[in-house]
Amino acid sequence: MDIHSKKKLSNGVEIPVTGLGVYLSPAGEVTADSVRWAVEAGYRHIDAAAVYGNEESVGEGIRTCGVPREQLFITSKLWNDDMRKGRQREAFQETLKKLGTDYLDLYLIHWPVENHAESWHVLEDLYRSGLVRAIGVSNYHRQHLDELAAEAEIVPMVNQFECHPYLSQEPLMELCRERGMVCEAYSPLGGQNGPVLSDPGILKLAQDHGRTAAQIVLRWHLQKGRVVLPKSNHRERICSNLEIFDFELSAAEMETMDHLNQDLRTGGNPDCFDF
Ligand code: A2P
Asked: Taking the model in full, what pTM does it have?
């Protein structure tokens, strides 16, 4: 693996294994800068969403980063209220406009709202018409995947969910593997002000390897076979979060990391969210 490593989705499209997350990245220059810093460091994958409220800033970053659009992998997500209001297509067009692009590499249903299976047909149409290169879901548990499977003609290529050492999601990972979906970890570092990066076990591994805690955590994700989407608005962190391809965690160290799981969620629970 190196910074250009990719995973093949079920339809053959390749997704870079590391992407910049932009949840809680404030609209404005700081987000545009973060995208430019990321691309300069070697990222080619940005994970956006309509509800983050910063698609225009991400778009500015994409337009001004100096790397042609077709070399970038851009994801966005269809927001819950747009599905509830039946304005899936309008929301998709708004996303394209704000991001300043005429296609997406990956479009996801953000949460399994009541009419998510109906919305999936819209994503299938967008995929068939070539406006998106791949489609998938986010925050889906087994029952949501089953509800979708009962209606879907195309199996989601990706499931993106909260995942970090305190929420290791092994059963969900296994399920996605069985169904041929690539897993993407959001909040891979445990989210904003989360406890993961100060875990004593992780700090010990960081010390042993001469690495940061974030690098240890991100390397653990990669060795688990996940795509990681760390967010930062700091140039130094954006760069160092990509320096995870020149060391390896041993089997015993991976096991130590695996034992940190506490099923601790920092974001919404797909089984009982109310937004
Ligand atoms: P910041 O944007 O101020 O750098 P996650 O990706 O799990 O959601 O976690 C992101 C959080 O961790 C953000 O609050 C981000 O803050 C912080 N962060 C990102 N990279 C690092 C790093 N290398 N070291 C410490 N904190 C980091």
From this structure: 0.98
Using CA atoms, how far residue 240 sits from 30, 42, 102, 237, in Å, is: 18, 11, 31, 5
Report d(CA 55, CA 61) in Å as an integer.
Answer: 10
Q: What is the mean pLDDT of residues 182-199?
A: 97
CA–CA distance, 33 with 30 (Å, rounded to integer): 5
What stretches of the chain adopt beta strand conformation (E)?
A: 6-8, 14-16, 20-21, 45-47, 73-78, 106-109, 135-138, 158-162, 182-186, 227-228
Say whether 235 sits in a helix, a strand or coil.
Answer: helix
Ligand 1 centroid to residue 207 C-alpha, Å: 19
pLDDT, tens digit (0-9, with 9 covering 90-100), for 123-180: 999 999 999 999 999 999 999 999 999 999 999 999 999 999 999 999 999 999 999 9
Read off the pLDDT of residues 204-235 as tens digits, 9 standing for 90 and up. 999 999 999 999 999 999 999 999 999 999 99
- Output the ligand 1 site: residues, CB below 6 A: 21, 187-192, 197, 212, 214, 230-234, 237, 240-241
Tell me how far apart the alpha carbons of residues 207 and 249 are, in angstroms, rounded to a whole number: 13
What are the CA-CA distances from residue 46 to residues 224, 240, 256, 259 (Å)?
Answer: 21, 16, 30, 30
Q: Which residues are catalytic?
A: 52
Q: How far apart are CA 160 and CA 182, in angstroms?
A: 8
Report d(CA 138, CA 273) in Å as an integer.
Answer: 13
- The one-character DSSP state at 98 is H
Average pLDDT, the chain: 98
- Distance between CA atoms of residues 266 and 188, nearest Å: 11
